[in-house]
User: Fold Trafficking protein particle complex subunit from Tetranychus urticae.
Amino acid sequence: MSLIGQGSNYYFVIVGKSDNPIFELEYTTKSTEKSSENRNLSQFIAHSSLDLIDESSFSANNSNMYLKVIDKFNEYYVTAFVCASSTVKFLLLHDANKIEDASLRAFFTDIYEIYCKFTLNTFYELHTPIRSSVFEKKALALAKKYLP
Assistant:
């Protein structure tokens, strides 16, 4: 994901119970060059938001799975979704600040559904990296559908 330039850029990650990345997806609405430096920056920003997600999801007033924007780093926003077990977190790093809340909620809800279906596979060990091209294609299709 190129964090510099025009267009909207997205970095989606599913984080496991040990704060390990289970699945990563980079998506951009414009063709830009990808670099490992930008990917590392995206990972760093997402990882630094994990404590804020824990604070928000464990607060007495919050029983929602969709946590909305929980962090901001320069022009990048981190939106989060916590699975029902509270051990798996979905994070979306984006530089588009005009995304409708309904679109983000629908994206997280649909990706949560395909994640739940994937974890029901008896050959998948929970909290290990997802290396399925089918899962990746479905996640990319959802990104194209919901993220402008």
